[in-house]
Amino acid sequence: MAPHEEKTNESAEEHVPMLEVHQEKDQDDLLPSPVSTVQARPASSNKPKMSAAMIIPIWIVLSSAVIIYNNYLYNTLEFRYPVFLVTWHLTFAAIGTRVLARTTHLVDGAKDVNMNKDMFLKSILPIGLLFSGSLILSNTAYLYLSVAYIQMLKAFNPVAILLISWTFRIQDPNKRLAMIVLMISSGVALASRGELRFNLIGFLTQAAAVAFEASRLVMIEILLHGLKMNPLVSLHYYAPVCALINLAVLPFTEGLAPFYELARIGPLILLSNAVIAFLLNIAAVFLVGAGSGLVLTLAGVFKDILLVTGSVLIFSAQITPLQVLGYSIALVGLVLYKTAGSK
């Protein structure tokens, strides 16, 4: 990854995957992120455009592929090193965005960012720390939980963002949003109650990932309000910072173990995995502005349903009727959350 920018990761969810765009688009009316336009500027003739009918399916396929591929690496190939994998994704992205900056117009937005030492230390670095934490934790959760259950827990992201926003008085609570918070929370609670392979470590890890991601988005609103970045421009600045942070963490978490496994996994697997994650971020640039926020929200919901279904079909994950009910309630809450923000 998100962002979401980014809704990102997600390797980014998102927190992914490196960047989860639909979730940031969900928040663009309630809590602006670098993906959303928070400061009017003249339209650029170089701004990439693609029809919603074309880019939304591409984004859904790439977003789903990143998550499924990562899960395949962790649990089928048993390459259980999320810190290393996220660091590799970020390193690839840092190099990739700079190649694109020299060869295309996709990263031209970086020229509009007045980056200086003060901005880097007070904004980019703290947000990068939260982004790294979000990516590492969200990827680590796949070692303990199924893809289906993690997608259900991710539905809690807007609730976390609202709670933090209310705490920092960025947004005032109201009855409608309080009911949506209760609805999503109840749905996620039902989904958790129905989980047959509940793992406390995995649950707490994903909960921490949600907290980091929500804090990151709130921090973006506080520190970078009024600054416009598309997902690739955000990645251009954050990827090197996060890669270095993760590299510093790697010796204390996974050590040299992942490097010993590289020969078994092979370079083709790692390269193709990073390429798909990077292509997702390119798709995110075209996705932003391709449709209304509600259309992108519904596309994200459809993608999440496909992921849950794919988890069952591909990885034999087990879901219960109680989880289906709970997740359905949470998804309805997500759509209401978007419509509440556009009124």
**How many strands, what sense, and barrel or not for the largest sheet?**
none
Ranges where pLDDT stays below 50 over 5 or more residues in a row are 1-45
Order of helices and strands: HHHHHHHHHHHHH
Shape call: globular
User: Span between N and C termini?
Assistant: 29 Å
Strand portion: under 5%
Rg, Å, rounded = 18 Å
- Helical content stands at 55-70%
Overall pLDDT: 83
Total number of beta strands: 0
The total count of helices amounts to: 13
Coarse structural class? mainly alpha
Would you kindly provide a brief summary of this structure?
69% of the residues lie in helices and 0% in strands.
Structure commentary:
It is built from 13 helices and no strands. The model is unreliable at 1-45 (pLDDT under 50). The longest helix has 25 residues, at 52-76. The protein is mainly α and 343 residues long. α5 runs antiparallel to α12. The chain has helices at residues 21-27, 52-76, 82-103, 117-140, 147-154, 157-167, 175-193, 200-223, 231-253, 257-265, 267-287, 293-315, 321-341.
How are the secondary structure elements laid out?
Elements: H1 21-27, H2 52-76, H3 82-103, H4 117-140, H5 147-154, H6 157-167, H7 175-193, H8 200-223, H9 231-253, H10 257-265, H11 267-287, H12 293-315, H13 321-341
Features:
343 residues; mainly alpha
